[in-house]
Write a sequence for this structure.
């Protein structure tokens, strides 16, 4: 089991010290989850801690074990080893009313009317059918889909059907929403809508955990991420901490091309066109600046660029996983 | 931030099963195909009724098979006198009938073999010769059937004396132990056969019950929200309810046809002739429905699990033949309960969960004791729970996997199962 660099190992006490410095109870806590299918290791020692109210991403290429991990967290399948707790419960089905789940493979009964499909999904989570229909109609109206309420699912466009399913996921007002590849198959406009919806849910105190192979979604939305590759989680923690794992990059432009000041540059400095690129020295930029000025380098510009989540992913999961992630993203974009 | 857990945070298994059952039941009941489901068995029933009517009419018009008789005139007169006396004692159906070829009335000598070969088929045998040297010609079955009776006729005709038959006082009882036992066995057999036919007709539907959910990817939503046992139970409840609606409609229609005066291909006569079952008709009817329900749930839970492992409709169709064979085996195994002097086999048929409802239906027809039947219903319910648990566990283990990585090429594929993770 690769415990790697989880910065939340201390979170086994079912509380999480978040970025704002406030201890928050955990919505999801997983320790050492292992799942084998017919002897093949699908998930190998996953540790995840998701504080309540957070937006949390599970980031990894296709086939990395994201869906299997989510299924274990939801109780759809049981782990072979390890523990999982959702709101402190070992059996997620015991708190089914608190959870909403949108699976990767979207599915609705084609002959059902949209409003009935939403109400049915609510009924699965303990809502009465009349209440489900009432709330469903409100949600459909809010998303400009009231006209589709009495249409059969098979008569809806793919995007509309996906929205209906998402509304069905939220109809019972869950405290934890689990979305498996929610942006998959959506156009840019609907992706934007979904991002806004996720933020709204989090603002209302709902914990949102979603899997994705698109880094930008995780970077824009998530407070924390678990990077998963080959069934292992080499990193689980805040997005900020992930980015901090790679030193910031300094981009320097000088008037002089040669001079003694060159010796002051860090060893990893490389020339890229008119710029020098190098990692931010541990001592900070001030001593370097002093030497450059004294050496008469003629500083035209100097910027410090923080590493993105993509760089962090490459650093943590490796080049191969990053390339696969990139390919998955492009494939998704091309579809 | 804290989550309020005071509210009950999940549906009970029964509530969850009812949510699934309600959806399935409504979806099936209000589908166009349900009409065909209802009408389907009525076509053979109508054909059966019509063929029964035609058969009866054909029997009515069928020629009365007789024995052709040619002897000297005085011998024939003696023989017919004996025939009249025997018919008086044994009844019209108890003696063969003769067609006379009397030489005194101008009939030529007959050729027995040619007469029997006659296409009209009226003559089953031919009696020729004299009273002292009679010859009966016929096929083996006719000779076997009529030799004894013809000999009686000849003996009585030869003595020519009045045989006095003593007056026999009779005392009527409505039934005997032996008769009741025999008749109840008939009731048991008919009930078991009916139960088997209904199960055969209806239980197979369960096989394809999860294919829609798998094809439309709905299964994961169900599996995330509810325990798989509840999903399985809900599916079974729905199909049982659909089946009971179907059975109710069919029986009501048959009842209406019979009430309108039709014999419905002999069904009415058979029903009217069935003796009271051991527990009485009202309770037997209730127990029949209960046994049908338990049998349906038992075999349905197995079919559901088998069908759930299939990934396409084609695989389900392939499975339907061995499944039918299984049902036949169960029926024949349950038939052991009808064999006298085989208590061990009867007990095995009762204990084997799949044959237990059949066996207990037979028992309800044959025995007045109610407690073993009630005990068996509890026993069957336990097995329903066990089968559902086993089926749902297998389903979760074998089917609820995702695609993508982790592929192990050395593993064989069963029913197209996906084993890798994504």
């Amino acid at each position: 089991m690769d415990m790697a660099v989880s910065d939340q190992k201390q979170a086994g006490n079912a509380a999480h010290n978040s970025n704002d410095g406030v201890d928050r109870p955990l919505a999801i806590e997983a320790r050492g989850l292992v799942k084998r299918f017919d002897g093949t290791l699908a998930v190998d020692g996953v540790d995840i801690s998701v504080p309540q109210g957070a937006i949390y991403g599970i980031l990894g290429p296709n086939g990395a074990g994201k869906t299997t991990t989510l299924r274990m967290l939801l109780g759809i399948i049981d782990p072979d080893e390890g523990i999982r707790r959702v709101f402190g419960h070992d059996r997620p089905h015991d708190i089914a009313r608190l959870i909403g789940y949108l699976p990767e493979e979207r599915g609705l009964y084609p002959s059902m009317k949209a409003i009935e499909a939403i109400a049915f999904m609510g009924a699965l989570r303990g809502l009465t059918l009349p209440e489900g229909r009432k709330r469903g109609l409100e949600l459909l109206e809010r998303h400009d889909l009231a006209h589709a309420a009495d249409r059969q699912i098979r008569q809806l466009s793919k995007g509309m059907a996906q929205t209906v399913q998402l509304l069905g996921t939220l109809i019972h007002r869950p405290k934890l929403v689990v979305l498996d590849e929610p942006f998959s198959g959506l156009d840019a406009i609907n992706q934007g809508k979904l991002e806004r919806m996720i933020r709204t849910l989090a603002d209302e105190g709902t914990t949102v955990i979603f899997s994705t192979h698109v880094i930008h979604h995780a970077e824009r939305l998530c407070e924390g991420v678990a990077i998963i590759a080959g069934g292992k989680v080499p990193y689980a923690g805040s997005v900020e901490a992930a980015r901090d794992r790679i030193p910031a990059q300094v981009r320097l432009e000088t008037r002089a091309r040669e001079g003694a000041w060159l010796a002051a540059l860090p060893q990893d400095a490389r020339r890229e066109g008119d710029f020098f690129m190098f990692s931010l020295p541990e001592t900070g930029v001030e001593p370097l600046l002093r030497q450059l000025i004294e050496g008469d380098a003629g500083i035209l510009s100097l910027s410090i660029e923080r590493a993105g989540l993509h760089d962090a992913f490459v650093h943590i999961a490796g080049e191969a996983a990053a390339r696969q992630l990139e390919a998955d993203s492009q494939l998704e974009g091309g579809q | 931030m804290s989550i309020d857990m005071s509210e009950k945070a999940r549906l009970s298994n029964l509530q969850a099963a009812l949510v699934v059952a309600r959806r399935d039941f409504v979806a099936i009941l209000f589908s166009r195909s349900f009409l065909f489901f209802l009408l389907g068995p009525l076509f053979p029933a109508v054909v059966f009724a019509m063929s029964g009517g035609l058969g009866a009419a054909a029997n009515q018009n069928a020629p009365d098979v007789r024995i052709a008789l040619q002897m000297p005139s005085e011998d024939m007169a003696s023989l017919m006198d004996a025939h009249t006396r025997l018919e008086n004692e044994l009844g019209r159906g108890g003696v063969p009938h003769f067609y006379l070829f009397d030489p005194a009335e101008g009939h030529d000598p007959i050729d027995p073999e040619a007469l029997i070969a006659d296409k009209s088929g009226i003559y089953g045998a031919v009696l020729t010769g004299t009273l002292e040297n009679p010859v009966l010609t016929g096929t083996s079955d006719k000779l076997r059937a009529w030799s004894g009776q013809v000999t009686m006729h000849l003996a009585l005709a030869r003595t020519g004396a009045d045989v006095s038959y003593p007056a026999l006082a009779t005392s009527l009882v409505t039934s005997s132990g032996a008769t009741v036992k025999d008749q109840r066995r008939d009731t048991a057999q008919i009930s078991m056969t009916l139960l088997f036919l209904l199960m055969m007709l209806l239980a197979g539907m369960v096989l394809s019950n999860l294919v829609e959910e798998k094809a439309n990817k709905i299964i994961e939503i169900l599996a995330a929200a509810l325990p798989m046992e509840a999903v399985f139970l809900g599916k079974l409840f729905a199909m049982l309810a659909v089946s009971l609606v179907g059975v109710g409609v069919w029986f009501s229609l048959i009842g209406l046809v019979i009430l309108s005066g039709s014999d419905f291909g002999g069904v009415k006569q058979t029903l009217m002739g069935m003796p009271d079952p051991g527990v009485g008709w009202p309770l037997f009817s209730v127990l029949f429905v209960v046994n049908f329900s338990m049998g349906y749930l038992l075999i349905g839970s197995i079919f559901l699990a088998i069908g759930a492992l299939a990934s396409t409709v084609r695989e389900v169709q392939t499975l339907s033949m061995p499944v039918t064979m299984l049902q036949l085996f169960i029926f024949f195994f349950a038939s052991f309960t009808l064999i006298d002097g085989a208590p061990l086999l009867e007990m095995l048929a009762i204990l084997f969960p799949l044959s237990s409802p059949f066996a207990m239906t037979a028992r309800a027809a044959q025995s007045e004791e109610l407690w073993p039947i009630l005990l068996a219903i509890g026993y069957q319910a336990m097995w329903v729970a066990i089968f559902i648990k086993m089926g749902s566990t297998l389903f979760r283990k074998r089917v609820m996997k995702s695609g993508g990585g982790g592929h192990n090429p050395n593993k064989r594929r069963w029913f197209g199962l996906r084993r890798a993770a994504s």
In short: The mean pLDDT of chain A is 86. Chain A touches chain B through 54 residues (CB under 8 Å).
